[in-house]
């Protein structure tokens, strides 16, 4: 039963009910004597009277407050005002008096809705009786405060969930609160109590688009105004689901209901009895055929103990002896003796991982890496079952974990969306062997109908033996690829599943080093996808992103404002780029919003967004300026295998095709994520990556390239004059462009003046030791319109011979390298250093011969020349035309750079 049904008739009507029941009993006795009326008809009469009384008491003791918050859009506010009016009409049909329903914010010309106005309206209801009923409905947008507290968007300071709770706690009436806003799910844990049912239009933070659910709820209320709260919400949720399905849209909102009776958080249909029960999700038909924990021979002898000690056995002694005998010449802290990995894709929209690992701790510094296991848990979407865990001590005795004692997965109905299950392994130290095995079951995201998975196989320690298995339905359209390993699988069929099994031996440790190319080019992993082609991927993503390009008058107005003082096409693009770049980068990647951009109007209103949101806004602004730009997906800092259609992307940027006749001679790739990249510099990790470019109804891969022959330029002008005491006074003027400018801006952005000077002086001291740098003058890091330059005054105690500003010595420190080296994140580089020396006495009679050398796409030059009677000038150049250094060229380039650096740091 729910509020507004017979079980919850207000207390002041009970005496009336008793009286009417007594009166009806007398009437029944009389009627029975005369007409023989059966008792069940009397009961029906009593029930009917009770229902009438409950409706009468509702109209006399119920009130409601509907609040429309700020939206940043006149059209959206008008739309919400219409929704509020529909809710009002439904409540009147339900029995609430028109005068007991207050709507705030429906009149655009009326007073602004502020936090104080809302709290004052709530305070008017503090005199309600405990048996009365109060409705509160919030419409518009919500978000998170800086303290990660949910808050409702109003004019001025936002109304936080805690402030709302305090106000509602002062109202004695039974309450129904409907937070019909974006980002509303986080209100439920704060507001829910035994006297207050809470409905949210979306699940926890992450669904930040304006929800359609409130309008569906208003329609459901008008359609059946006498229904209970759960039934109305369930009907609305069902209609929303039909809308998204009919329009081939991914579900972008998931309503939740905090049930006052049980204290549980329910998903649709919220336990409503009037709706057909939801069919349970079919379970997988058993564990993986070949992958299991049978090799870990664990016997639980003390069922009530979490951990139990067990004596050594021949099996455990043999395992320890075998582990000790494994060669470890490079001295790894631990060795992965064996792993069994697998993935099973079911016909029931589920996926299942299996992991079994046997790790030998060779040194104590491996304990922190392997002694604790965090098992994936995000029920009901992700649940993990521990099969076995034990530690075998050096003497063969073991400590065994009882899997039944693992804390249970916390399901969504508890109000928690993430449960952490940690297995702590006691008494782990060098010489121990750790064994663990577990299955993880995934409910595949309904919003993302295509499968795209990546299973890491290679580890950061050596793996002696790997058994890898993939199980896919025989009739399924699933593709796979074992990346960076050519071993063929053994194929078989079992139980309607296609089984592919790889047996790999002696996988070396994956040891990433600075200046490595993308790890995807080297790391062994299993890629799985149900996408047949990149065209299919593009069609899927277009459906997913449908509606995300809708904009309103606020975006158009901002575009007009930016274009006002921008006479040329490039000026307009630059203005729009700098505006969007300056917006805060905030990544809130939950559910479908991890893939679908938010609308330009919403990003403009919030003044923040992630990479896809900011790119989407930039494209909208340029479109309003008459400039076509296209949305792109790429794998920043990594690589994309364009031969294997799958979700391989972690970043979004914008592409503006060249328009020579309009004054744009080159293609432009614009990354608005980082606020330290000046126009049109590309951020690190973008250059050279394949980008999937969406152009109207098609999509194609293009390589992200710099504008024209753009290079990173570093210019240093050092000027010194010798003093009579032999010391030197001088100045430095440095400037940067390209990725060097990006790096320098990033180093000092947000620092206090003293912190900034400390960073700068530390870098300069690395170039010229035993010197004092004063009066440092640096361009403002957040002003992208100005060239980034540094000026400084210098006092040096001895002859100054500065090192180059590009750290070639540290980059090429190891004598050898077994892999390619990627310099300057893939962008060409040109360093020019000039040193002017004016001697007061003892100037040199001769200088070293010029240096000019090349190796593997790197060129260096250095030369001295006379400059006046007592002056000398040294010029030095470093050019990197091919930033990807092959391992075969590494040693020769290293020797050349050592000679060049020695030339620069020695006296003439």
Write the layout of secondary structure elements.
Elements lengths: L13 H22 L3 H23 E7 L5 H21 L6 E4 L10 H9 L9 E8 L1 E3 L5 E3 L6 E2 H9 L4 E8 L5 H5 L4 E5 L12 H11 L5 H18 L9 E3 L6 E3 L39 E4 L3 H11 L9 E12 L4 E12 L5 H4 L1 E4 L6 E11 L5 E4 L19 E4 L8 E11 L8 E5 L6 E11 L5 E5 L6 E5 L2 E11 L17 E5 L4 H12 L7 H11 L5 H14 L1 E2 L14 H7 L1 E2 L1 H14 L5 E5 L16 E6 L11 E3 L19 E6 L2 E6 L8 E11 L5 E9 L1 H11 L4 H15 L3 E8 L9 E9 L11 H4 L9 E2 L6 E10 L12 E5 L2 E9 L4 E10 L3 E2 L1 H19 L3
Parallel strand pairs: 1-2, 1-3, 3-7, 7-8, 12-20, 25-26, 32-37
Antiparallel strand pairs: 4-5, 5-6, 8-9, 9-10, 11-16, 12-13, 13-18, 14-17, 15-16, 15-18, 19-24, 20-23, 21-24, 22-23, 27-28, 27-30, 28-29, 30-31, 32-33, 33-35, 34-35, 36-41, 37-40, 38-39, 39-40
Helix pairs in contact: 1-2, 3-7, 7-8, 12-15, 13-15, 14-15
Question: If you had to describe this structure to a student in words, what would you say it looks like?
Answer:
By secondary structure, this protein is of the alpha+beta class. The strands form nine sheets. Strands 11-16-15-18-13-12-20-23-22 form a nine-stranded mixed β-sheet. An eight-stranded mixed β-sheet has the order 34-35-33-32-37-40-39-38. The chain has 19 helices and 41 strands. The protein has four domains: about 5-15 and about 55-265, Rossmann fold (3-Layer(aba) Sandwich), CATH 3.40.50; about 305-530, Immunoglobulin-like (Sandwich), CATH 2.60.40; about 535-705, C8orf32 fold (Roll), CATH 3.10.620; about 710-905, Jelly Rolls (Sandwich).
């Amino acid at each position: 039963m729910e509020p507004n049904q017979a079980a919850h008739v207000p207390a002041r009507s009970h005496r009336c009910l008793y009286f009417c029941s007594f009166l009806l009993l007398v009437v029944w006795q009389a009627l029975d004597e005369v007409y023989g009326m059966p008792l069940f008809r009397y009961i029906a009469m009593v029930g009917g009277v009770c229902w009438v009384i409950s409706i009468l008491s509702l109209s006399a003791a119920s009130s409601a407050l509907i609040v429309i918050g700020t939206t940043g859009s006149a059209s959206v506010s008008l739309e919400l005002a219409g929704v509020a009016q529909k809710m009002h009409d439904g409540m009147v049909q339900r029995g609430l008096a028109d005068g007991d329903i207050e709507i705030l914010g429906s009149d655009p010309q009326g007073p602004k809705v502020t936090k104080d106005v809302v709290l004052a309206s709530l305070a008017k209801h503090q005199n309600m009786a405990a048996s009365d009923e109060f409705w509160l409905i919030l419409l518009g947008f919500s978000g998170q405060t800086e303290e990660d507290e949910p808050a409702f968007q109003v004019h001025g300071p936002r109304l936080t969930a805690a402030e709302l709770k305090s106000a509602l706690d002062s109202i004695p009436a039974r309450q129904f609160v409907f937070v019909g806003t974006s980002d509303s799910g986080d209100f439920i844990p704060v507001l829910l109590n035994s006297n207050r049912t809470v409905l949210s239009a979306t699940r926890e933070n992450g669904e930040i688009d304006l929800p359609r659910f409130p309008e569906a709820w208003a329609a459901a209320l008008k359609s059946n105004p006498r229904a209970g709260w759960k039934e109305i919400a369930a009907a609305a949720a069902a209609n929303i689901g039909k809308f998204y399905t009919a329009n081939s849209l991914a579900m972008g909102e998931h309503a939740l209901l905090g049930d006052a009776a049980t204290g549980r958080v329910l998903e649709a249909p919220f336990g409503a009895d009037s709706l057909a029960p939801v069919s349970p999700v079919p379970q997988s038909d058993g564990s993986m055929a070949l992958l299991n924990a049978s090799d870990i021979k664990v016997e639980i002898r003390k069922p009530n103990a979490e951990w139990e000690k067990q004596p050594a056995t021949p099996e455990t002694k043999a395992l320890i002896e075998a582990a000790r005998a494994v060669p470890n010449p490079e001295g790894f802290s631990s060795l992965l003796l064996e792993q069994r990995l697998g993935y099973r894709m079911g016909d029931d929209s589920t996926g299942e991982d299996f992991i079994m690992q046997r790790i030998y701790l060779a040194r104590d510094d491996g304990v922190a890496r392997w002694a604790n296991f965090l098992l994936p848990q995000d029920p009901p979407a992700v649940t993990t079952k521990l099969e076995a865990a034990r530690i075998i001590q050096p003497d063969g005795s073991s400590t065994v974990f009882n899997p039944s004692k693992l804390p249970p997965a916390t399901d969504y109905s508890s109000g928690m969306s993430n449960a952490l299950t940690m297995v702590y392994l006691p008494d782990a130290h060098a010489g121990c062997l750790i064994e663990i095995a577990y299955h993880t079951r995934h409910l595949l995201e309904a919003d993302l109908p295509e499968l795209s998975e990546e299973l890491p196989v290679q580890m950061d320690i050596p793996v002696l033996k790997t058994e890898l298995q993939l199980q896919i339905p025989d009739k399924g359209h699933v593709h796979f690829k074992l990346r960076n390993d050519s071993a063929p699988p053994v194929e078989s069929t079992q139980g309607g599943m296609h089984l592919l099994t790889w047996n790999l031996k002696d996988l070396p440790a994956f040891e990433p080093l600075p200046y490595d190319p993308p790890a995807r080019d080297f790391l062994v992993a299993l890629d799985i996808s149900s996408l047949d082609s990149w065209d299919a991927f593009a069609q899927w993503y277009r459906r997913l992103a449908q509606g995300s390009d809708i904009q309103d008058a606020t975006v158009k107005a901002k575009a007009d404002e930016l274009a006002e003082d921008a006479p040329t096409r490039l000026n307009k693009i630059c203005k729009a780029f700098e505006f969007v770049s300056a917006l805060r980068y905030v990544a809130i990647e939950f559910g479908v919003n991890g893939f679908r951009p938010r609308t330009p109007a919403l990003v403009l209103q919030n003044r923040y967004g992630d990479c896809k949101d900011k790119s989407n806004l930039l494209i909208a602004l340029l479109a309003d300026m008459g400039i076509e730009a296209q949305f792109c997906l790429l794998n920043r800092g990594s690589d994309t295998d364009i031969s294997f259609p799958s979700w391989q992307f972690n970043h979004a940027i914008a592409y503006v095709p060249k328009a020579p006749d309009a004054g744009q001679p080159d293609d432009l790739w614009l990354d608005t994520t980082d606020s330290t990249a000046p126009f049109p510099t590309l951020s690190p990790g973008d250059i050279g990556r394949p980008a999937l470019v969406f152009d109207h109804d098609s999509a194609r891969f293009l390589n992200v390239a710099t504008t024209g022959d753009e290079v990173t330029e570093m210019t240093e002008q050092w000027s010194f004059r010798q003093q009579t005491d032999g010391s030197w006074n001088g100045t430095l003027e440095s400037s940067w462009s390209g990725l060097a400018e990006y790096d320098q801006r990033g180093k000092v952005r947000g620092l206090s003046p003293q912190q900034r000077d400390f960073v700068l002086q530390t870098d300069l001291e690395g170039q010229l030791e035993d010197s004092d740098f004063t009066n440092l003058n640096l361009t403002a890091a957040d002003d992208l319109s100005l060239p980034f330059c540094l000026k400084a005054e210098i006092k040096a105690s001895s002859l100054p011979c500065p090192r180059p500003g590009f750290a070639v010595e540290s980059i090429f420190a190891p004598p050898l390298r077994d892999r390619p080296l990627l310099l300057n994140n893939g962008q060409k580089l040109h360093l020019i250093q000039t040193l002017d020396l004016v001697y007061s006495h003892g100037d040199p009679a001769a200088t070293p011969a010029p240096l000019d050398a090349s190796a593997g796409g790197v060129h260096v030059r250095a030369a001295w020349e006379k400059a006046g009677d007592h002056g000398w000038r040294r010029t030095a150049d470093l050019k990197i035309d091919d930033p990807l250094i092959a391992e075969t060229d590494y040693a020769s380039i290293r020797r050349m750079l050592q000679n060049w650096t020695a030339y620069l740091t020695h006296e003439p």
